[in-house]
């Protein structure tokens, strides 16, 4: 009789969480975007969130919480109630790069539950029109002939464009000088003014200048060519397969979120990602939708963190850790 009572007591204690998971979602989901409205992260979240809302028949409310290159909004998810009603679509910087650059309030591996990778966008290496190099071999040869003379712009220290440039520098064994800017726009302005000679930036950011002929594409830091720039070879095609640099965005939830809630979030999100309208809208911006299982996404975050931590260390990028 005592054993039976203990079993019944255990079930009574477990039942609220089980019932909550079974009914999930029964109310609105808050989808945190750790960057300002209008940027790639925000566009991805709104496209996927809108379709997801239709699938679950519940509101998906976008909550822009920018700050610290995505860290502030991601930390808000790490500290939220682990019930599936607060999630984020956050970025490579917040999950795989900034943790190696500075002390932050959360551990991506311990405090967050991966749901799925959502989208990737490759970095493209371009040079200014007055640089005589027309391809990767010529650019590397030029840099080796003029050590310390060529400058590469980035959108800021420790961002993916900066680390892509450092990875290129390490791989090619060349001496080029990093010039950081506060964002992509001022970096492009100085490229057009020929104050700096090259940069890695997100493909969509560079497309208008490539089409206008004011910047010359050299290579795409991805495994496959982009439909938006089909004539631009990948880094693998030009002999640098290790210079892979893709910005990416993925969904995470608080670490203690029940497994079956994570599975439901995964199903709803990937179902939204498979919608033709969502695919078409994001493809037009150079974004590729890449669904992963939670375990695959966890491994991907870990591999990206290891990769960029090595680049930071080998390149001597200053950190505050």
Structure description:
It contains eleven helices and ten strands. It has helices spanning 2-23, 40-56, 71-78, 92-101, 136-145, 160-172, 184-192, 203-212, 259-273, 276-283, 294-315, and strands at 29-33, 60-64, 86-91, 112-128, 151-154, 177-180, 198-202, 215-220, 246-254, 288-289. The model is unreliable at 14-19 (pLDDT under 50). It has 321 residues and is α/β, with parallel strands linked by helices. Strands 1, 2, 3, 4, 5, 6, 7, 8, 9 and 10 form a ten-stranded mixed beta sheet that branches. α6 (160-172) links the parallel β5 (151-154) and β6. The chain is 45% helix and 20% strand. The longest helix is centred in the N-terminal third of the chain and has 22 residues, at 2-23.
Secondary structure: elements and pairs:
Blueprint lengths: L1 H22 L5 E5 L6 H17 L3 E5 L6 H8 L7 E6 H10 L10 E17 L7 H10 L5 E4 L5 H13 L4 E4 L3 H9 L5 E5 H10 L2 E6 L25 E9 L4 H15 L2 H8 L4 E2 L4 H22 L6
Parallel strand pairs: 1-2, 1-3, 5-6, 5-7
Antiparallel strand pairs: 3-9, 4-7, 4-8, 4-9, 4-10
Instruction: Tell me roughly what share of residues is in helical segments.
Output: 40-55%
Report the structural category.
Answer: alpha/beta
Query: Mean of residue pLDDT?
Result: 93
Beta percentage is 15-25%
Gyration radius, rounded: 22 Å
């Amino acid at each position: 009789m005592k054993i039976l009572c203990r079993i019944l007591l255990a079930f009574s204690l477990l039942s609220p969480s089980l019932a909550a998971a079974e009914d999930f979602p029964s109310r609105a989901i808050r989808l945190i975007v750790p960057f300002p409205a209008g940027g790639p992260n925000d566009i991805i979240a709104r496209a996927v969130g809108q379709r997801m809302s239709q699938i679950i028949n519940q509101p998906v409310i976008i909550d822009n919480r920018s700050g610290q290159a995505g860290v502030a909004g991601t930390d808000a998810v790490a500290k939220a109630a682990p019930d599936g009603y607060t999630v984020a679509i956050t970025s490579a910087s917040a999950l795989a790069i900034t943790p190696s650059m500075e002390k932050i309030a959360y551990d991506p591996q311990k405090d967050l539950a991966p749901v799925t990778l959502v989208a990737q966008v490759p970095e493209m290496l371009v040079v200014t029109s007055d640089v005589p190099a027309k391809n990767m071999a010529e650019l590397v040869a030029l840099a080796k002939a003029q050590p310390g003379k060529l400058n590469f712009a980035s959108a800021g220290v420790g961002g993916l464009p900066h680390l892509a440039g450092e990875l290129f520098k390490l791989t090619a064994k060349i001496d080029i000088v990093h010039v950081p800017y506060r964002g992509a726009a001022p970096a492009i302005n100085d490229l057009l003014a020929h104050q700096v000679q090259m940069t890695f930036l997100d493909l969509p950011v560079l497309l208008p200048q490539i089409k206008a002929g004011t910047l010359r594409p050299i290579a795409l830091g991805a495994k496959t060519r982009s439909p938006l720039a089909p004539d631009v070879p990948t880094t693998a095609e030009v002999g640098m397969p290790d210079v892979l640099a893709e910005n990416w965005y993925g969904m995470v939830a608080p670490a203690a979120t029940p497994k079956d809630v994570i599975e439901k979030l995964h199903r709803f999100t990937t179902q939204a990602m498979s919608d033709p309208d969502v695919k078409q809208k994001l493809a037009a911006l150079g974004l590729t939708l890449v669904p992963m299982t939670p375990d695959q996404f966890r491994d991907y975050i870990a591999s990206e963190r290891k990769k960029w931590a090595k680049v930071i260390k080998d390149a001597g990028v200053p950190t505050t850790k």
